[in-house]
């Protein structure tokens, strides 16, 4: 039986939504408390003792404390014994983790300027030329995903849904909901429709929050 899972983080956070979607896919019961902008602060000594970065989500699993959303998702899938979400075979697992890591290290940084400038209205990211450059970089990364989905004909790591699609699904939703000019990416469009058949994506991915 999975130990009690307590999620600290507001439900609108893209990284909290990954964890919530993973819980739904894996059938993991959990409790969530609102932390982050507009809610309980993350810069207090108590919170920083849990995550020195001062970011959500933080997850308590029994007495253990975890941060970094993709790592949390991996742990939850393992605790639930969901080898379909994260295979045990080293090569099959690496294909899933490769796209999870790409989401974190390549795709996410590409949207930073456009998203913060256009959606968050952060004055530090208001330069139109930098927003336009950011949108181009973001679209270029999405074209890489489109090519991969065209190759598999289904999901990021192959024919079956995995954790890679949880973390990519919330990022694809952000791309679709940010007011930038987007190229036609037919494999991504078909991918979103496949994801939309999953209740977890509808609740935590395509839920009206970028």
TrEMBL record:
Signal peptide extent: none
Pfam family, one: GST_N_2
CDD domains: GST_C_2, GST_N_2
Domain GST C-terminal: 89-210
GO molecular function ontology, one term from the record: transferase activity
Name of this protein: Glutathione S-transferase
Alphabetical keyword list: Transferase
Domain GST N-terminal residue range list: 3-84
Transferase recorded as keyword: yes
Family affiliation: Belongs to the GST superfamily.
């Amino acid at each position: 039986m999975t130990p009690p899972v307590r999620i600290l983080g507001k439900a609108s956070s893209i990284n909290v939504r990954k964890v919530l979607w993973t819980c739904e896919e894996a059938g993991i019961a959990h409790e969530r408390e609102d932390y982050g902008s507009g809610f309980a602060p993350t810069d207090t000594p108590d919170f920083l003792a849990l995550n020195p970065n001062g970011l959500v989500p933080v997850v308590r699993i029994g007495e253990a404390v975890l941060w970094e959303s993709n790592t949390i998702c991996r742990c939850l899938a393992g605790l639930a014994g969901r080898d379909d979400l994260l295979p045990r075979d080293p090569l099959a697992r690496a294909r899933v983790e490769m796209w999870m890591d790409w989401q974190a290290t390549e795709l996410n940084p590409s949207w930073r300027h456009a998203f913060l400038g256009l959606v968050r209205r952060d004055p530090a990211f208001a330069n139109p030329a930098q927003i336009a450059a950011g949108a181009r970089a973001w679209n270029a990364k999405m074209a890489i995903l489109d090519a991969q989905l065209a190759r598999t004909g289904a999901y990021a790591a192959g024919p079956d849904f995995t954790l890679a699609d949880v973390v990519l699904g919330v990022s694809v939703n952000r791309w679709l909901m940010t007011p930038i000019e987007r190229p036609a990416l037919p494999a991504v469009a078909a991918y979103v429709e496949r994801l939309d058949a999953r209740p977890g994506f509808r609740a935590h991915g395509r839920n009206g929050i970028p």
